[in-house]
Each structure stands twice: as structure tokens, then as C-alpha cells.
Write a structure and sequence with these properties.
With 299 residues, this protein is α/β, with parallel strands linked by helices. 36% of the residues lie in helices and 16% in strands. It has one domain: 3-Layer(aba) Sandwich (Arginase, Chain A), CATH 3.40.800. It is globular. The structure holds manganese (II) ion.
Length: 299
Amino acid sequence: MEIVDLYTDRGECFFGKQSPEARYVVLGVPFDSTASYRPGQRFAPCEVRRALYNIEWNSLVIDNATLYDVDVNDIGDVAVVHGDIVTTLDRVATVIEDIVEAGKTPVVIGGEHLITYGVMKGFHRAGEKPCLIVLDAHFDLRSEYLGLQLSHATVMRRILEDMDTPLLAYVGVRAWESEEKEYAGARGLLYYTSLSVKRLGPVNVAASLAREASRCSEIYLSIDMDVLDPAYAPGVANPEPLGLNPFEVVQIIHRVAGDARLAGLDLVEIAPPHDCGGITSILGAKLLLEALLANRNAR
Ligand SMILES: [Mn+2]
């Protein structure tokens, strides 16, 4: 049974690059079954690819860096089973395990944030435990949500508890239940709220992340698009006001992804049915492009 669908016949939905030898392996996970407010993240892998296909491929930050010079292998989307969380996450883990064992760097386009659990499980099965840096408006640290242990609202708690993953820091958090803040405090998790990023400045926050990461052999970056203010990224499943702006986020991404120890990254929670003119998918595509170019430049 094939658990990865190759969307080779879908024209612009395709990332446009397919080099089997490439270090970077792009994988879509069009899953949104635990969405509670505004579903539709299943459409994001296609929309982000379409956006990336149509914007220019240069970096704004690194002179003369362009995606034309980066070898990328887009292997398509995981064949998700809508409504079946366990099967879907297991398939994600199986594919990621293969990618990691082949020494490649997965670049995952969600999908809701719960898919990061499957990705981390794949690393775990491959015997790797990268330090996690999360850009998000939310902690996702509930013990359960709407009776579910595995949910977009519990994903980081499950990753911490099931795999003992070192969660290095959150950036941009600004919306929580008291239970989550208490849990973060009890575990001593480091977090920068969106307000503290404004006060400290993104360069200083990024420098502090780099200091924290000095103890890590590998780093994994999870980018929830709701870390951005809804003014810049309205098309997300759970928008929260008072977020970061694109320049703050891109500076942090450049520092984190511009580390040769980056083992993988994901971009999650874009919900195209709630977007305006595709601006969230286009910005997501740009952030992905800058992350890839930052990382390639570091190697
Ligand atoms: Mn979030």
C-alpha cells in the first residue's frame, strides 16, 4: 500500500522540484481532523506549493541566494485518513523515519499542528532526538482537549511526555489556558511571548535561542503560522491578535534555520478557506523559502 501520494499530475500544486538526491525532502500532510474552530488546513500543502511556485525565488536576506540553486525533492503528500488520528500519525512517522534514516532533512507542510507529533515520532524511531523550537501563538500543552489526548491543542504536551523531546523554547506565545502556563512553569519551559519579542527585539531573542541551542546536537523548527499577527496571516485555524510581524519572524527563522544542525522543520496551521487573497499561504511559502536558503547557506 502506498502511503505517500505523488501529486505529479497536479501542475502548480507541485513544488516544482524533484531531485531524488536532494538533502531537503518536502512532504505535505493534509490533515485537519482535530480542528475545533476553523478547519481547512488540509488544503494548505497544495496552496503553499502553488504560492511558492509563483513567487520569486530569491532571498531578501542573503545576497544572491536563490531556490534555483537548492536541491529539493518534493515527494508529495502523506495519504492521510481523515478522522483517523492514530493511523495518520503513524504514516507520517513511517515516512519521516525513512527520510531521517536516509540522512535527509524533512520539510513538512501541514496540516494542523498535531502532525508535528508524527514527525517527532519518526525522528524518535530513527533514534534521533532534536531540540525543538516552536513559533506559535499557543503552547498546545493541554493534557486533553474535547476528550482527546491527541489534538492540535495537546500536541506539545504529548511530544514532551511520550518522547521526552527537549523543547528548547517557544517564540510568540500569547494565548493560553492557566493549566498550560502552569505546566510550562512546572517543566521550566522557556518562552518568549509576542510582547517580550517586541520589547527585546527579534535579533536578541534569536541570539538567546542560539545560546540555548548550544547544548543540542540537532534542532527542529516548528512554525505555526498563527505566531504571526492575523493582520499578516488571517488564514489560520485559530487566529490570535497581538502577534508578530513578518520581519520579526523572518529574522528568527534565519537565525534558527541558518544553523547547520537543523534536522528538519514544519509549517503548519494555514487554513486556506479562511484566507484573504491567499496572503497567508504566500507568506508561508516565503518563510519556507527563506528557511531553506538560510540553511543551505549554513552548510
Ligand atoms: Mn497555534
